[in-house]
Amino acid sequence: MTSSARFEFRTWSRNFAVVEDRIRRLASCEDIRESTEIYLVAPRMSACNIKIRDGAVDTKALIDELADLEQWQPDWNGQFPLAAQALSQHVFRPLCGEVPDFARHNFTEQQALEEVLRPHPLIVPVKLFKRRFSFAIDGNMVEWVQVLINDAGLESIAIESLDPERVTKVRCMLGLAGFRNVSYPRLAQHVIGMKPLRGGFEEGGKLGPGN
After folding, report:
1. pTM of the model
2. What confidence score (pLDDT) does residue 1 get?
């Protein structure tokens, strides 16, 4: 297993106050970070996570699924300005398999968004604001996240580790065994109506007792 390929469980609700309280009883908050990001989604995408953040394109690949967990491998990071060839290889081919005719050899972030991404018939840039509260519980990275997705307010709990059994253990400790695992790209597809989740993201989402 590649050291950076973590197993991840991420779930969503309109309010996770009860779970936040459980997390804070188990650990102290280690960091608070805010960011504005743009996720790039398309109807046919299934195993890629592509976002624009801090003047760069950041990509991850879904390499395995185990016991309702997803294992994501950091794949590529490219700073703007980016060559058309890099956009072709790392953005357009994974998202839709088709490469447009580029009018430039190199693109700034604004040029890429305005000239080739937003006009594309299949790709939709989705704006997210995140406020992430980070904790460490039983060898896992745990985040409680306040998220705005195209101005829709939601909350997320994420648990990540190299060891899938540790993720499952903490998931049960927090009472989240009945909640669905939904990645950022899949949730973005749902919010914009591109590819709704069957029954919505909270299907089956009843909190267990926790600790």
Report:
1. 0.93
2. 39
